[in-house]
Amino acid sequence: MNRRTFSLMGLGTAAAATQTASAFVRGANLDTSMMYMGSIMSFLVRAQDTDGRFAMVEYRARPGNEPPPHVHLREHEIFSVLEGKIEFHCGDQVETVGPGETIFLPKGKAHAFYIRSEYLRTLIISLATTKEPAALDSYFASMAKRATSMDIPTDDVTYLTDDPSHAIEAGEKYGIKMLSPEEAKRALPHFGGLGANLT
After folding, report:
1. Residue 35 bridge partners (DSSP)
2. CATH class of the domain comprising 28-145+156-191
3. pTM of the model
């Protein structure tokens, strides 16, 4: 398709922004997917496609694939569940989200989650809130490798088995602060800790 210029009114702090973008179609398949910390992450919209304003991925996972508690320093995050259930902890709130439901997690708020079904498929959308571009998709890609199958891997490294310094260093680069166990206890009083849903 040809590139078209169009105006986005009322988005962000500017009254109008001019953006050059091309329409495209992408699906969750081997061409768009990576193995990410024991799960499959399909990159449907990259931040580079949207002038850095947002990104969207499809996340396929099972219990044990969850990330550690963390805070996004420059992006809001939205999960829209397609299959399965997730129990979110955001501050002192605990919310269970199922198929057809969406949760909004604001920038700057500590959060974590447990997958509460045998299988989870959800969209994850990150929205830039500063002049810095959305970078959650780049964080995911930096922690992943090319998928060889659309099946969730059974023997891949997860956050429970990986050296935590990998996530901490990648997070620092892409605007995500990983919380220590002590910080997580203070920020998420009802969260039992990474992996607690497996016992």
Report:
1. 40, 145
2. mainly beta
3. 0.89
